[in-house]
Amino acid sequence: MIYPPKPQAGDKVAVLSPSAGLPGILPLPFEAGLTVLREEFGLMPVEFPATRVMGASARERAADVNAAFADPSIKAIIASIGGDDQITVTPHLDDAVIRANPKPFFGYSDNTNLLLHLWNLGIVAYHGGSVMCQFGRCGGTHPASAESLRAALFTSGPYTLPESFEFSDVDKPWDDPASFDAPPPMRACDGWHWHNPDRVVEGATWGGNLEILSWLLMADRGIRPAAAYEGMVLIVETSEELPSAEEVFRILRNMGERGLLAKFPAILIGRPKAWSLNHRLTPAESAKYADDQREAVLKALTHYAPATMAVFDVDFGHTDPQVVIPYGGQIRVDGPARTITVTY
Question: What is the CATH number of the domain that holds 86?
């Protein structure tokens, strides 16, 4: 796997919408994110033609990705946000151009498609850090998110992930300017939960958003034979659509039936998002949702990978704060020390 060269302060970075062109209809978090990129990270964001176009075709969005990789002045690529149809975009990517011009790509959720595509090309990418959600967060980027983003963007080498004891998954309306006056409300949490923490596992990461992974598995898009994942560390997280515990179990069960789960000696499960504007759960309901999801994962592991070490509620994916996980990069999961160290 190749770690692409990192940008430096003053460099240009592409901000693209490979999934949904939400910057065009919800400009407030997008503009806030651009400001943070310029003023706090010292980068020069460059928009491409489809960045603010809701409903842009798959070919138009792929053309932006191809152009961003081809442009020698662009030193990194950051997704504006996710969506639900990036699976239609990746067939139009120019792999020869991307291989010849590897660059750090940041995104998560539906951007699991691009992360996996880059992994198959031998390029390390970065799970996390979208313009509208992390850089454009209401009230400013969370300090823990900002620290991880800076390390992933500008440095190379080991980075020990911080364990958060407060979090938020409550959304503010992005069409209300008042939403950006203060950060979202934070809630206390217990940190990470460990299962089978009796060893140290080192390897490359693979996975992403669990719902998107299930679609990729159904389409047989970019999935290799199970033996290719031997010794890797699986990273999975769920979205604001709040898939049920039963659905989470079924996806993992099917991965087990395919022979995948048993290949991973360790798995990281992101802190589940348990509230959204379309699913306004009470704190008690949110806690039960998270507990039920954990039990669903453990049930699947019991059947298909009983010896696998698992770490629950790691701060990646659809949660705040969010840390960046190198996709295809190296990770060390130290059970006895209860630490997780990635290599940026």
Answer: 3.40.50.10740
Q: Quick check: helix, strand or coil at residue 208?
A: strand
Which amino acid is it at 305? Answer: A
Listed residue (52, 53, 65) closest to 18, CA to CA: 65
pLDDT value, residue 120? 98
**Predicted structure pTM score:** 0.97
Cα 133-135-141 angle, rounded to 5 deg: 100
- In a shared domain, residues 206 and 287: yes
CA nearest 324: which of 187, 117, 146? 146
Phi, psi of 282 (to 5 degrees): -75, 165
% of the chain beyond a pLDDT of 90:
100
Structure confidence at residue 118 (pLDDT): 98
Q: What is the mean pLDDT of residues 243-259?
A: 98
Q: Which of 261, 276, 50, 68 is nearest to 172 (CA)?
A: 276
Of 157, 175, 190, the domain-final residue: 157
